[in-house]
Amino acid sequence: MKFVLDSSALLSGKDFRGELYTTPEALKEVKKIGMTPQLEALFSVRVSITSPSRESINAVKEEAKKTGDVKRLSPTDVGILALAKELSAVVLTDDYSIQNLAKELGLEYRGVAISEIKEKIYWEYRCRGCGKFWEEWYNFCPICGSKLKTSRKR
Ligand SMILES: [Zn+2]
């Protein structure tokens, strides 16, 4: 079985069974947060570093716009999902936004330390000024010009 590991999965230092993949960007995040000789040894032996194609990245971004996850996902997160899509791999991550979108994309995912989310989460945006809810993100509320905040849709 193939797995794509995000930085949370890489940092766990666990040696998962199967073929392990990650992106150069996720590896860069791990280096920034705290690479250890043990991790470096594990990655060099066990993890293939691969970049997803431009098409897969765009497909993931489109899907993220629909669920409202797009503002919560970093380019690194998008890359992880795109690679998993391309390889038909299981995503290993503790990041809820990545898990949520994986589900949306029909990808299998597993949590590393904490249990996976069971339900799909949708996000909406609420104006801090007039309190109106918006389906889409705006930098400023189209009605009153205040900033929006992200909240979970019920
Ligand atoms: Zn407003």
Description of the structure:
This protein is of the alpha/beta class and 154 residues long. It is built from six helices and eight strands. The strands form two sheets. A five-stranded parallel sheet has the order 3-2-1-4-5. The chain has a three-stranded antiparallel sheet with strand order 7-6-8, with no helix packed on it. Strand 4, helix 6 (96-104) and strand 5 form a beta-alpha-beta unit. The chain is elongated and about 55 Å long. It starts with a strand and ends with a strand. The model has no long low-confidence stretch (mean pLDDT 87). The chain binds zinc ion. Zinc ion (ZN) binds at residues 127, 129-130, 132, 141, 143-144, 146.
Secondary-structure blueprint of this entry?
Layout: E1 2-5, H1 7-11, E2 19-22, H2 24-34, H3 37-46, E3 47-49, H4 54-67, H5 75-87, E4 90-92, H6 96-104, E5 109-110, E6 123-127, E7 133-134, E8 148-152
Parallel strand pairs: 1-2, 1-4, 2-3, 4-5
Antiparallel strand pairs: 6-7, 6-8
Helix pairs in contact: 4-5
